[in-house]
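Researcher: Please translate sequence to C-alpha cells.
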Amino acid sequence: MGVRAKIAALCAAGAMCVCAVGVSAYVISEDAISAQFYSRLSADGVLDAQDMLSVSLIAPSGNINGISPLKVNCLIDIDKVAASGAANADGDVCLKVSIRYAFGMVMRDDLVARQVISEGSAQVASAYVADEDGGKDVAFTCSSEVSGEDVSELAFTSRIVLSGVASVGGECFVSFDFSPGGGGQERIEFFKANPSALFEVSTAIAECE
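Model: Translation complete:
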C-alpha cells in the first residue's frame, strides 16, 4: 500500500482545526503519570491491560487565536487483546478514551470550565495496523458522550470500535484528538491558570457491545 493514507472521522460536531503556539497547558503533572496511566481491561476494570495498551500524549497549546487539540496516541497489541478474549465474535476491538479534569485544577469561572469539556469534540485522525508496507488502514466507528454533573466530575468519553482487527493481528496505532470547547479570552485565561495539570486521560480496552 506504500505510505499509509490518513483517515479522519468526527466523533462529535464542531471540531476545531487550530494549531497555535504560545500558552502551554500540560495534560498531567509528572508526579501523577504513574497513577493515571494504568489501563484496565473491560467494563469492570478488574484485569490489568498495561501489556496490551500503551499511550503517549501531546498537550494542547494556544494563544489568543485558539487552543490546539489534546492528542492521544495509542498502541494496541491486537494479538494479546484477542488472546484475552476481549475482542467480539466479529473480531472487533473497542478502545475507550476518557478525558477529565486533573485533581487540583484551578476553576475561576464555572461556566468556562464546564464548556471546555462539555462543548468539546473528538476526532480519530488515523487508525492503522503496521505492516511491511507502512500500514493498513482500519475501519472504525466512534461515538462520544459527556457525563457528570459537577464540573469536577465531568468526563468526555469516546468509544472507538476497530472493525475486524483481531483477525489481522499485530500492532494497531490509533491517533485521537480532543478539541476543547468554549472560546474567547476566558478560555485562554483558564488554560493559563492551569500550567502544570489540567486534564487526566485514561484509556482502556473495553468490551464491544
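Researcher: Any highlights?
Model: The mean pLDDT is 74.
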